[in-house]
Amino acid sequence: MSAPRRFARMGNEAHLTPTLAGSGTPHTQRGADRMPELPEVETVRRGLQPVMEGARFTKVEAHRGDLRWPLPKDFVARLEGKRVEGLGRRAKYLLADLSSGDVLVMHLGMSGSFRVARPRGEKTPSGYSHERSKNAAHDHVVFHMSSGARIAFNDPRRFGMMKLVPRAALDQEPLLRALGPEPLGNEFDAGMLARACKGKKTSLKAALSDQKIVAGLGNIYVCEALHRARLSPKRRASTIATRAGLSNERAQALVDAIKAVLEAAIEAGGSSLRDHRRTDGELGDFQHNFRVYDREGKPCPTPGCHGTIRRMVQTGRSTFFCPVCQK
Known about the structure:
The protein is α+β, with helices and mostly antiparallel strands and 327 residues long. Helix content is 22%, strand content 21%. The chain is elongated and about 55 Å long.
C-alpha cells in the first residue's frame, strides 16, 4: 500500500490533512473512509505548531454552530486574545494549551483538515497535504493568528470536533480519561501491554484497536505492526502474557514493532515538512511503504517468506496479513 502525499501550495497556502489511500490509488474505499491515526495527527500537529505555538488568536470565525457536536456558545470569546502556550497531541486529538487556562481539544474526524495561509514571502509548513478544497463553504472555523497565519478548518462531513476544556479538568474529560498509554511514550513497554492483555479472549487485532489498551492506533498501523512482529491478527490477545500477566517474547516483539512502524510513519510525514521540490519545480510526492495493508493477493515482503497477503474482516474492519509468516 502506499498513501501518496501531494504537497501542493496555492500562493501562500498549504493544506494540512491526512491523505488516506490504498495502494497505488489516491482514494480507495477502505482508505478514504477511515479515521486519521496517530502518525497523521502528529504530522498535522507538527505542521500547525510553527504558526500557532506562541501566537494569539486575533480573530476567530465560527461559520456554523456545530461540527460533530455544537460548539460552545462562547467559543469565539474564549479564544480571541488568548495565546497558544503549547500545541500537543493525545492519541488522535490535538490539544492547544491556552493562556486562559483552557485547552482547545480538536479532532479531525474523517474528512477534516487544516489549511494554513501565511503572509506573502514566508514559507508555509506542510504535512499530510494535498491541493486545498475549492469549496470554502466547508471552512467551518477560521483562526487568525498574531503570527500572521490564517488557519481554516475544513470538514465536509462534519465528523470533526472542537471543544474547550478547563486545563484543571482535562484528566476527567470524557474524551480523554479512558485512553490507554501513548505507544511512543517511555512508559509503554512489553510489561504494560502484557498486563493489559492478560486473560483477554479477544483477538490480538481487536485488543490493539481498543483505545483503552493503546491510544492512537487504528486499523492500518495495527495490521502493519502485527506483520512486523510476525503475529497473527487472529491470535488470542492473552497469548502475549504469561498466566501471571508477565510479558513474553511475543509482547516484546509487538511493542518493538508498534514503535517502529509509528516512528517510520511519522518520519515519512515529517520529511514532508521540508520544502522539497523536484527538478521540474513541482513539490515532491512522499508515501509510506506499507507491507500488508491493502495489498491483498500480493507477495509477502518478509525475506524468505513465500506467502501471499490475504484480507479478512474482523469486527467490521478489513484486516490484511500473511498466513505463512504471521503465527
